[in-house]
Amino acid sequence: MSETSLIFPAAEFRARTERLQAQMAADGLNALLLTSAADVFYTTGFLTRFWESPARPWFIVIPAKGDPVAVIPSIGADLMQKTWIRTIRTWDAPDPRDDGITLLTETLAGLVPAGGRIGLPMGLETHLRMPLGDYQTLTTCLANRTFVDATACVHRVREIKSAAEIEKIRAICAIAGRAYARVPEFARKGRTHAEVFRDFQIALLAEGADWVSYVAGGADQDGYGDVISPAADQPLIEGDILMFDTGAVKDGYFCDYDRNYSVGPASSVARHAQEALWQATESTIATLRPGMRASDVHRLLTEGLARHGATASGGRLGHGLGITLTEWPSFTPLDSTPLRAGMVLTLEPGCYTRDGRILVHEENILLHEDRVELLSPRAPQHLPELDA
Amino acid sequence: MSETSLIFPAAEFRARTERLQAQMAADGLNALLLTSAADVFYTTGFLTRFWESPARPWFIVIPAKGDPVAVIPSIGADLMQKTWIRTIRTWDAPDPRDDGITLLTETLAGLVPAGGRIGLPMGLETHLRMPLGDYQTLTTCLANRTFVDATACVHRVREIKSAAEIEKIRAICAIAGRAYARVPEFARKGRTHAEVFRDFQIALLAEGADWVSYVAGGADQDGYGDVISPAADQPLIEGDILMFDTGAVKDGYFCDYDRNYSVGPASSVARHAQEALWQATESTIATLRPGMRASDVHRLLTEGLARHGATASGGRLGHGLGITLTEWPSFTPLDSTPLRAGMVLTLEPGCYTRDGRILVHEENILLHEDRVELLSPRAPQHLPELDA
Predict the structure, then answer these.
(1) Which of A95, A127, A321 to mutate to test the interface with B (most CBs of B within 10 A)?
(2) What's the sign of the alpha-carbon dihedral B1, B3, B9, B14?
(3) Is residue B237 classed exposed, middle or buried when 0-12, 13-18 and 19+ CB atoms within 10 A define those classes?
(4) Is residue B46 part of a domain?
């Protein structure tokens, strides 16, 4: 009987651990200390929405050799035992005297020799999900070990998706695609933003999402001011461009792409922006290859927009995707991360329409050696029209 | 015209700031540095699901006197301008060279004199939501200021809810109550856990939740093994006790309570556990008053269960509630936090049924000077029966 775990067979997690350990060896790390929901899920398969509660820290230690060790609150023992992890140490959290720090210190001391190096992610796009005071206690208790940044170690491994991971992202992209196709059923002139946001989340669930971690959007004349607001109580009116963006989740994997709709006929300024966004994405898909850097994608999209008379909006124009809504790298002029086959990415060009308003377009893609594969169903070239 | 902000009038946020500043003065703090979604929302009204993206840090600085200062990624400027915050400093994030740290250093240096103290939450149930390496850079740049733990400062203020906050929690509790009442419409023998979890989330949205940040539960014969798992693909069978637990959100405020259902007639062991949980909650509601400590609630619930022949399950038996799924204090034997009028809390007794299985019961309450008010509609005394 093959070993099983949650979400994937144990072999998937074993392969991930071995890739991390190879990178750790190259970086001179004796252990990796992981605290975030994503890193814990990535290495164990432990999937729960309970991370929503900030009450308890959770720790996974990856030794230089051998299987990961879980040091977790006892409330999670039952679920962790369903994963491939066999060494599970628990304490009753939250404990105001010692919230797992003695147990974690003993675990690390047993796996890392004096003078050894313990890596944890400390860099861009990372957080330490444990109380800062407890981290300071831990470093004091293990003063003869060195704590160093392991952001690159984790990122270089996680950013290349396995075939099993790609199937999960493909599945949630398809679910979102069916929900987007149903938007004209419930979004029309007169309904409030709040109503259509709610119905969009219901459509995502009805089409098969396990849960909806992220929905944002906007609606205003010829474009919207920002792309991160929750819904307002105002009604859709003719001439609005309605945008939904979602990070829905299936088996712990995210999609992240948006779609735009015009309430009644689109104005020429909105149609022009849509055409520029669609064409810039099209030409980037045709050109993007491994060996380029993240900054090259920003350039390709910006130049593509310019060729169609549009000006790119500020900020990044896409990013990595997988087990969080957004992953590194970032498509900005400053990010020099090399792009490699197996990366799942979003292309997210935005451009100005008028008065500081923007239109944003987004697709999810998989980078192959010789081509770009769309994981999201390609957005229509022309803005779909909602009843006005 | 009165000042407005998002979610509440500006006066609400001004009062919160003044309460924080009074506590800061008592604790000898020259500024407070806040990084978490909850603390940023609490002080500004800035509400977005964009926190789901780990890409960017967000900073709010509360000076000893005067209004808060936002130091945030430019992608959030439009939304922050809709709040009562007038000083908004932005940078283009993510920036691998300097992700807001120079801007934050300048802001803190301008508000805190040399030798001054900057507080930030470092204690139990807190995280620093920014890269650890950037925090280390910040403390180096401001080496002539001291960074100290401000967990108690923030907790003592946030744990007392205003009338406006209580109305928000009351509203989402009522929404969840209507969704729980609809469970017999879609949960019955033969439907899979995944199907009914999905339908429950749809019911929460349909009844008025803005979004559903948390749904967990379980279903097994006479009780369930854990309370944090996502749904499995197995069908409900006769004799299962189905439990749903949800943290649904309206205007940024959470409910957090569960409900149990029996698939077909409940066994005597399940009926006995339900009766003990219901009675222990009833007697605790009758007895709990300000002046008690968090540990007293654990004792009241444990003793109440024992009087009805049941043994309390491990872990905490309730906690605070508000703008995250769970807030401090924790109803454990170790938490000595004094309970005060204005606290919103959950009573969450659990007890063993058989073979390590448990039943968990939960209500949301508001502590008054002279009584406990239920915010969740009281659970039925006897287990509701689903079609089998």
Answers:
(1) A127
(2) negative
(3) middle
(4) yes
Q: Does A330 touch chain B (CB under 8 A)?
A: yes
Minimal Cα–Cα distance from A78 to chain B, Å?
6
Domain identity same for B193 and B143: no
Tell me if residue A259 falls in helix, strand or coil.
strand
Look at chain A and count its residues.
Answer: 388
Strand partners, B70: B60, B88
Residues B58 and B134 in one domain: yes
pLDDT at B1: 38
Same-domain status, A137 and A241 = no
B307, part of any domain? yes
Check if the beta carbon of residue A173 is closer than 8 Å to that of residue A255: yes
pLDDT of residue A1: 38
Running DSSP on this structure, what letter comes out for residue B323?
S
Tokens 């149930």 locate to B125
Query: A99: which chain B residues are within 8 Å (Cβ-Cβ)?
Result: 124
| Partner residue opposite B48 with nearest CB, options A36, A50, A228 | A228
Rounded Cα distance, A12 and A3, in Å = 10
Calculate mean pLDDT across residues A282-287: 98
Q: Does B98 touch chain A (CB under 8 A)?
A: no
Q: How far apart are CA A35 and CA B93, in angstroms?
A: 23
In a domain, A194, yes or no: yes
Kindly state whether residues A226 and A271 are assigned to the same domain: yes
Average pLDDT over all residues of chain B: 96
Chain A contact present for B3, CB below 8 A:
no
CATH of the domain at B16: 3.40.350.10
Render the burial of A214-224: b for 16+ CB within 10 Å, e for the rest: bbbbbbbbbbb
Expressed as residue numbers, the domain containing B151 is: 10-158
pLDDT for the residue B4 = 66
pLDDT at B355: 86
CB A10 within 8 A of CB A98: no
In a domain, A2, yes or no: no
Q: Is B255 in the same domain as B358?
A: yes
Strands (E), B255-378: 257-263, 318-320, 327-330, 344-347, 350-352, 358-360, 363-367, 372-374
Contacts (Cβ under 8 Å, ≥6 apart) of B356: B225
Q: Is the pTM value of this prediction over 0.80? A: yes
Contacts of A94 in chain B (CB under 8 A): 124-125, 316, 330, 332, 335
Cβ separation A324–B247 shorter than 8 A: no
Q: Over the stretch A125-143, which tens digit does the pLDDT of each residue have?
A: 999 999 999 999 999 999 9
Contacts of A245 in chain B (CB under 8 A): none
- Pair A191, A337 in one domain: yes
Is A210 within 8 Å of A249 (Cβ atoms)?
yes
- DSSP for A275-344 reads HHHHHHHHHHHHH--BTBBHHHHHHHHHHHHHHTT--B-SS-SEEE-SSSSSEEEE-STT--PBP-TT-E
What are the residues whose beta carbons fall under 8 Å from the beta carbon of A156, sequence distance 6 or more?
A23
> Are B53 and A334 inside 8 Å of each other by CB?
no
ipTM computed for the complex: 0.97
How many domains are there within chain A? 2
Find the residue in B nearest to A36 (Cα). Answer: B54
Could you report the per-residue pLDDT of B217-273, keeping only the tens digit for each? 899 999 998 788 888 889 999 999 999 999 999 999 999 999 999 999 999 999 999
CA Rg value for chain A: 23
What does DSSP assign to residue B367? Answer: E
> CB distance A212–B212 less than 8 Å?
yes
Q: Count A/B contacts: CB-CB distance under 8 Å.
A: 208
Asked if the C-beta of B228 comes within 8 angstroms of chain A's C-beta atoms, the answer is: yes
Which residue of A49, A128, A214 is the best one to mutate when testing the B interface, meaning the one whose CB has the most B CBs within 10 A?
Answer: A49
| Percentages (nearest 5) of helix, strand, coil residues in chain B | 35, 25, 40
A137 and A168 inside one domain: no
